[in-house]
Design brief:
- With 552 residues, this protein is mostly helical.
- 53% of the residues lie in helices and 0% in strands.
- Helix 4 crosses helix 6, helix 4 packs across helix 10 and helix 5 runs antiparallel to helix 6.
């Protein structure tokens, strides 16, 4: 129940649960009812003590900031009471702990009433099923040994009933409070609850057997200590996992803020990498690490100057050398994060190519780590199917054809085939691309107003003036080496090299004095719109140059 303002329907639902809980517990309060009050009191106090660390902040700090289980979820004591007591008396054992359980959201009173009612009904139902299946005879008492394996039947049925009733009530409150459709209200609840309740049921059975034995209730208490420690370790694991996820999110958000044109790219590469891994049949324990590798593959961009990442025009050779350092920057950043494992090698080598023409180390073939080969394909695919500042998105079919064309030279053919199978099976959700019907055109660039001609010599303009400023002479960017043109992904503008695929647009000569447009055929920039008239005297026009590939 994740809402702060509880609607009327939810309050009615909680009221009905409260009436039902009262009906379950009241028979034990009738005069002359055969209730073992000493056992009820002891089990009730035990359950309340188990819930104290979840409520007490001081104990929570001593336990490292983590309570062994969530509030109201340490159930071995309740399941033991369901095997030891009459249904109405068993329901009363949940009352003290449920009332003392921590409530993190408001209104706390209504939520505590709901949790108490829910547990009373659940324990009563579990005890009723166990009693029906002959728990008293199966568990034995005093000198009579428990009847194994028959004793497992009422214990298992009790734990299953406990799980089913608790799940059914949880789904009902989700429908009433959060307005979730009934067909989805219970989705995933039973699957997540079944295994923990089975373990708690086994611990409850051990407590009940020792309680009924000649050693008495004191022996049963020793079952709780190892169970409580195991629950604490499990909670610590979840806390550490949450910290890992928070670390990854922080790094990805930092990259997205710095390079706004690729926002969401990291998450999509992680998703595509997992799709490839599923097709390859990778072990489940490696999938999460591979997803981290895909998400963090561009974390090294944090070390690249922002002006280079956001530059619209082609990169100079010096800028190319700077951006090709981002895999090494990324590896240095995550080198000390132990839980990333194989992901660190993928971050370092995801721009290596099968023919050895990649960077940073020029590895080839099987020398490239498997994770890096997976991420390289996922990275290239998403770069081609998403719109950037320097290129328009391509349709999925076009991107797949390009990957297949470069398989064996740039990408591992096995990874490409796995991605194709995954796309056929699951599809791929992308934005509308520029090549699809009805795609919105890219926003035009607004040309800057042309400045009036001014004499070469004269007084310096006042910077506070409101009129247009005289443009400063522009120095043409150095031309890329001729040998680099047409060599595919490793050549030309490698700002991203995420796709790193050749543009497959032939370089054509431009008229004298006119700068050639970029391969992505976008509208001319303000500098290009000014034409040769704005070029200072003595500065020659740059030679026509078409970048042969996409950026990294």
């Amino acid at each position: 129940m994740g809402v702060k303002a509880i609607p009327v329907t939810a309050r009615v639902y909680i009221g009905c649960a409260l009436v039902g809980a009262a009906g379950c517990a009241l028979p034990a309060l009738r005069p002359g009812a055969p209730v073992p009050w000493s056992a009820v009191a002891l089990l009730g106090v035990l359950y309340a003590v188990c819930e104290v660390p979840a409520r007490c902040r001081i104990l929570g700090r001593l336990l490292g900031g983590t309570s062994p289980m969530g509030a109201g979820s340490f159930f071995p004591v309740l399941l033991a009471s369901a095997l030891l007591l009459p249904p109405s008396a068993a329901a009363l054992t949940a009352l003290p702990g449920a009332l003392l359980a921590r409530v993190d959201e408001r209104p706390a009173g209504v939520r505590r009433i709901w949790r108490t009612s829910q547990l009373l009904i659940t324990v009563w139902a579990a005890a009723l099923v166990a009693e029906t299946l002959g728990r008293d005879e199966a568990l034995g008492k005093g000198p009579h040994a428990p009847d194994f394996p028959y004793a497992l039947l009422p214990a298992a049925a009790s734990a299953l009933t406990f799980c089913l009733v608790l799940t059914a009530l949880d789904g009902g409150i989700r429908i009433a409070a959060e307005r979730i459709p009934p067909r989805t209200a219970w989705r995933g609840l039973l699957g997540r609850a079944l295994a923990p309740h089975a373990v708690h049921g086994l611990a409850g059975l051990m407590m009940a057997v020792l309680w009924r034995s000649a050693y008495g209730p004191v022996a049963a208490l020793f079952v709780l200590l190892p169970m409580y420690i195991s629950c604490w370790v499990f909670a610590q694991y979840h806390r550490e996992r949450a910290a890992h996820q928070a670390t990854i999110r922080a790094l990805v958000q930092a990259v997205d803020i710095k390079d706004r044109y690729t926002r969401g790219h990291s998450e999509r590469v992680g998703r595509a990498s997992v799709l490839i891994a599923h097709e390859l049949g990778m072990a489940e324990e490696r999938l999460e690490i591979l997803r981290f590798a895909g998400i963090l593959h561009d974390v090294g961009k944090l070390g690249v100057p922002t002006r280079v990442l956001r530059k619209d025009g082609p990169l100079t050779p010096e800028e190319r050398r700077i951006i090709e350092l981002h895999p090494e920057y990324g590896h240095e950043m995550v080198r000390g994060i132990g839980f990333l494992g194989e992901a660190r090698a993928a971050i370092l080598h995801h721009h290596e190519r099968m023919d050895g023409s990649g960077y940073p180390y020029g590895l080839s073939g099987s020398q490239i780590p498997e994770f890096a080969r997976v991420v390289a394909v996922a990275d290239a695919f998403d770069a081609m199917t998403s719109t950037r500042s320097y290129s328009r998105a391509r349709p999925v079919a076009t991107a797949v054809a390009e990957l297949e064309r470069c398989a064996g030279t740039h990408f591992d053919p096995r990874m490409v085939r796995a991605l194709v199978r995954a796309l056929d099976r699951h599809g791929w959700q992308t934005d509308v691309t520029a090549d699809e019907p009805g795609a919105p055109p890219p926003p035009p660039r607004t040309p800057a107003p042309r400045a009036p001609a001014t004499p070469a010599a004269g007084p310096r303009a006042d910077p506070r003036a409101t009129g247009p400023r005289t443009p400063e002479p522009r120095t043409p960017a150095p031309r890329a080496p001729a040998a680099a043109v047409g060599k595919g992904p490793a050549s030309g503008d490698t700002r991203a090299a995420e796709g790193g695929l050749p543009a497959r647009v032939p370089a054509t000569a431009a008229p004298a004095g006119v700068r050639a447009p970029r391969a992505d055929a976008g509208p001319p920039t303000a500098a290009e719109a000014r034409g040769p008239s704005a070029r200072p005297r003595g500065v020659s026009a740059p030679k026509a140059h078409v970048p042969p590939g996409g950026r990294a």
